[in-house]
Structures are given as structure tokens and as C-alpha cells.
């Protein structure tokens, strides 16, 4: 009886404390919200995910923030999540999305030591494809304002920064090849390599993207719909490239391996060309890979951001400083040029993912969640 009484008392105290912080400047946080939920495992997001309305707005625990999402990030790997590839132990239904920017509208006691209601934060946490998300305070980063440019840094920027710092061994004069260079993370790999005084080659799918890459300082752009990537690399870089930042996979991976210089390094940060297939992979020439690497003393490294938690804060702080000083371009793609217009509302996440896989985007794809009519924040 005593144990039950204490457990009940603690629940009441926690709920009371949370409710104390639920009202900021007269804002009305609703009891229910909309969110996207994986209801069937499939790499086809439209088949896998359901937009659910009338879901309870969650309350934060002691070390948590409740964030009202204003912008959410779309990533190629969202369909790996909907296919159940990252965590096979997850049972449907489960929430989807893992990065957002918004305001803190409620928080727990421990979290209040560092954050306040009304503060703008960016975060990486499961369930960002929702109007409200409970975020562990340790997974959030305070940002100057609710601006989508900060969303570009969370996964895309830190992936480029940490992978190139830890695995790239960049130095002046090295030749760096960035595939999908005009995309969400490619844009940062180009800029960081240029800041290390490297010669940068970027592949892309259009002349418009090539112009964007040139504006970032890219030394050689290759529009693969116009030029043959393998032929260009062989002719113009006969001694090979020193570092490859590779996110495409399939045939592009093979071209990148062939282009490696002696002691060259290839960093795999993804292989999006295969994500929509049943296995998530496209075939590569694995049989000849050991011989190719041996002949050049070259190496292939995989990079997954989740394996570098101790490096994240430093990377994010550095990227925020560069962003604040105007030393970093954070290109945001909100879908204004898409056939159906801007990506607004949770229902547009499906369009945004389609847009990404059609390779239409320049920069990081972001979906805006508009203000609720009843919310004054």
C-alpha cells in the first residue's frame, strides 16, 4: 500500500509541475495533435506511414522538453526508418522523423536548469514528424531563433563536419570528390573541404545545381546528366582523388572507388540510390574491391552519426559559430519550386520525400508546420 501511495504521489507531483509550465504568454496547448506514424513496414513512405489526428499531446518528464515543432527535416534515410531497417526491434505502430526546430512550450524540473519555456531549440530525437515532440534535454541545442537554417546543421552539417574531421584527413591541396554535392549534406562537405584549402569536385544532376556549387567555391562541377563522371575523373584527375564523400551508392560508388588515388580514402555516409529497393541496396562490384584497395593502399570507411555522440556538441557549436559569422551557407529547400508549392503541414512530408528521391532539391529539404490558430506563440 505504501509503495502504491508513493508512486501515485510522485505521478501527481510530476504532472502538476508539467502543467505549471504548459501556459506561456497565454498560449493554448491543445489536448490533441497530428503526427505521422509508421503503421506498416515498407520503404514506400506513402504505404508505410499514416497521418493520425487526435493524438494526445505528450507531457515531458523530469529531464525532457516539450517542443512545438515549427520546421522538421526530411532525410533520405526516413524511408529506412519506415522500412524497419535501423531498429528491427521496433514494433508497429511507431513514430517517425528525427530532427526538428521549434519552441519549448513545457519542460521538466531537471530540464529547466538549462532551458526555459519559449526558448528556440533544434534537436535530434525520434518522432519529429508531429506537431509536438517530447525531446530529452540532452538531445536539444539552443539556437538564436526558430529558423530553418539551423535544421540544416543537425544531421546534414554534423555528418559532414565529423566524418571529414575524423576520417577525411583533409589538408591543403588534396583533391576531394563529393557526390550529390548540392544536397542537404553535400553542400557542407563542399564548404568544409574548401575551408581546408582542398580542390573540390562535386557531382550533381542539373546546371542550376552546378551554379549553386560554384557559388560555394566548388572547383569542378560534374552534371552527370550531361557529362560522364567516370570519363571526367579519368581524364582530368589521372592520379586520382584523395578523399571521396559518398552518399549515392550503386554505380557511383564503383566510379568513386576507381577514382581513388594512392592512399585515397572513401567515406560512405549513405547510399540513397538503393534505399527505395526491397533490400535498401543496389549491387556494387564487391569482388574486385579488395584488389583495388590493395593496389592503391586505399581505404573505405563507413560513417554513421549515431556512433559519434561525443563529437556532436563540438561540431554543432562550431557550425553555429560559422553560421552566425556568415562563414557558412545553409541552403534550405522548402519546396517553393515544386509543382504543388511549398512543403507546409505534415501531409506534405510525403511530397517532400518524393521530391528528394526525384533529385530535385538544392540544399536541405525542410517542411514547415504552420502556427495553430489558437496558439499565440
From TrEMBL:
Keywords on record: NADP, Oxidoreductase
Alphabetical list of SMART domains matching this protein: PKS_ER
Example of a GO cellular component annotation carried by this entry: mitochondrion
TM regions (residue ranges): none
Record carries keyword NADP: yes
Entry's EC annotation: 1.3.1.48
GO molecular function, one term: 15-oxoprostaglandin 13-reductase [NAD(P)+] activity
InterPro entries given in the database record: ADH-like_C, ADH-like_N, ER, GroES-like_sf, NAD(P)-bd_dom_sf, Quin_OxRdtase/zeta-crystal_CS, Zn-ADH-like_protein
Matches recorded under PANTHER family: PROSTAGLANDIN REDUCTASE 3 (PTHR43677:SF3), SHORT-CHAIN DEHYDROGENASE/REDUCTASE (PTHR43677)
Enoyl reductase (ER) domain mapped to chain residues: 44-367
Name of the protein this chain belongs to: 15-oxoprostaglandin 13-reductase
Source species of the chain: Rousettus aegyptiacus (Egyptian fruit bat)
UniProt family annotation: Belongs to the zinc-containing alcohol dehydrogenase family. Quinone oxidoreductase subfamily.
Record carries keyword Oxidoreductase: yes
Pfam families: ADH_N (PF08240), ADH_zinc_N (PF00107)
Top-rank taxon, per record: Eukaryota
Amino acid at each position: 500500500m505504501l509503495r502504491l501511495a508513493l508512486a501515485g504521489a510522485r505521478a501527481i507531483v510530476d504532472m502538476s509541475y508539467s502543467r505549471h509550465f504548459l501556459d506561456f504568454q497565454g498560449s493554448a496547448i491543445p489536448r490533441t495533435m497530428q503526427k505521422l506514424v509508421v503503421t506498416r513496414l515498407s520503404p514506400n513512405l506513402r504505404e508505410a506511414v499514416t497521418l493520425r489526428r487526435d493524438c494526445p499531446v505528450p507531457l515531458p518528464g523530469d529531464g525532457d522538453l516539450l517542443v512545438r515543432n515549427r520546421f522538421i527535416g526530411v532525410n533520405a534515410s526516413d524511408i529506412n526508418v519506415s522500412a524497419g531497417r535501423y531498429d528491427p526491434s521496433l514494433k508497429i505502430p511507431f513514430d517517425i522523423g528525427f530532427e526538428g526546430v521549434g519552441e519549448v512550450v513545457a519542460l521538466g524540473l531537471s530540464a529547466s536548469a538549462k532551458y526555459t519555456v519559449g526558448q528556440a531549440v533544434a534537436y535530434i530525437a525520434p518522432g519529429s514528424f508531429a506537431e509536438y515532440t517530447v525531446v530529452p534535454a540532452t538531445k536539444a541545442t539552443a539556437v538564436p531563433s526558430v529558423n530553418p537554417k539551423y535544421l540544416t546543421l543537425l544531421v546534414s552539417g554534423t555528418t559532414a563536419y565529423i566524418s571529414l574531421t575524423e576520417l577525411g584527413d583533409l589538408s591543403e591541396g588534396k583533391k576531394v570528390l563529393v557526390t550529390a554535392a548540392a544536397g542537404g549534406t553535400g553542400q557542407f562537405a563542399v564548404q568544409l573541404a574548401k575551408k581546408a584549402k582542398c580542390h573540390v569536385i562535386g557531382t550533381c544532376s542539373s546546371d542550376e545545381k552546378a551554379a549553386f556549387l560554384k557559388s560555394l567555391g566548388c572547383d569542378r562541377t560534374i552534371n552527370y546528366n550531361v557529362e560522364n563522371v567516370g570519363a571526367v575523373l579519368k581524364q582530368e584527375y589521372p592520379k586520382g582523388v584523395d578523399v571521396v564523400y559518398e552518399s549515392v551508392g550503386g554505380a557511383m560508388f564503383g566510379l568513386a572507388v576507381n577514382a581513388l588515388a594512392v592512399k585515397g580514402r572513401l567515406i560512405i555516409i549513405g547510399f540513397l540510390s538503393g534505399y527505395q529497393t526491397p533490400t535498401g541496396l543496389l549491387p556494387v562490384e564487391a569482388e574486385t574491391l579488395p584488389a583495388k584497395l590493395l593496389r592503391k593502399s586505399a581505404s573505405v570507411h563507413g560513417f554513421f552519426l549515431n556512433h559519434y555522440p561525443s563529437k556532436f556538441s563540438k561540431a554543432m557549436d562550431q557550425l553555429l559559430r560559422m553560421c552566425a559569422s556568415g562563414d557558412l551557407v545553409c541552403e534550405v529547400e522548402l519546396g517553393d519550386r515544386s509543382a504543388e508549392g511549398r512543403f507546409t503541414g505534415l501531409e506534405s512530408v510525403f511530397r517532400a520525400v518524393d521530391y528528394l528521391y526525384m533529385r530535385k532539391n538544392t540544399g536541405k529539404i525542410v517542411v514547415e508546420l504552420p502556427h495553430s490558430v489558437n496558439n499565440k506563440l
